[in-house]
Amino acid sequence: MHKQMIQPKVTLVGAGPGDPDLLTLKGVKALAEANVVLYDALANEEIMNHAPQNAIKIFVGKRIGCHEYSQDQINQLIVDNALTYGHVVRLKGGDPFIFGRGSEEIEYVESFGIPTFVVPGISSAIAVPAYQGISLTKRGTSESFWVITGTTSDRDLSKDIALAAQSSATVVILMGMSKLSQIVTLFQKESKGETPVAIIQNGTTPNEKIGVGTIDTIQEVVVANKLSSPAIIVIGEVVKESNKLKGFYEEFLSKEIIS
Hints:
This protein is an alpha/beta fold. It has helices spanning 2-5, 25-32, 71-85, 102-110, 124-131, 160-165, 180-189, 218-225, 237-240, 246-258, and strands at 9-14, 36-39, 56-59, 62-63, 66-67, 87-92, 116-119, 145-149, 170-174, 196-201, 209-214, 231-235. The strands form three sheets. It has a five-stranded parallel sheet, with helices on both faces.
């Protein structure tokens, strides 16, 4: 009789960029009603405290060099748990639809006739620069911004970066640290060597690290500051105009003059 009462449904929830306070109220409510939570490698697992203590919690995330489950297995886990237990919350870092494969999961779940809901999350592409006072658009400086994955599903550099380098837009690159030298080369080809760059590691978290420079110098900055993934690369004049980063740039420019 219990199984007849089960009403399967799946809610994709964006966990935000790392700061647990950036989880939306709607996300908190969805977690509070979860029977099962399938969660990624979250920047802050405090978010899991919003789920009921007796909810089943399954880690399905991917860490460098360690994939607990393939995407096909994750899709099947979502369906199996929804049919068995009822409400499944699929908790994903950032926003589920920004390089998160959320649409693939929704399509698979709905093919079984299971109702789905999406709770958008605050994307790291916007929040991480904002925490450093970087306005991705600014009147008179940047009319638009690109958000690009640095590494495609084929492990290649995205071809869109070469196009973005030709524009005057702010360019935000996720998952691009392993391709930094190639990115630098593309911007140098467009005579953008002096364009400001900020690299922000573990953005919005207590262990956040940042390095600033230009296209020509950013690789040296990465080495000096021991920056690595996960990090966001922000390229554009708006980086230099951040009040929070002015001190970094004044120090950087004074070193350039001395050298």
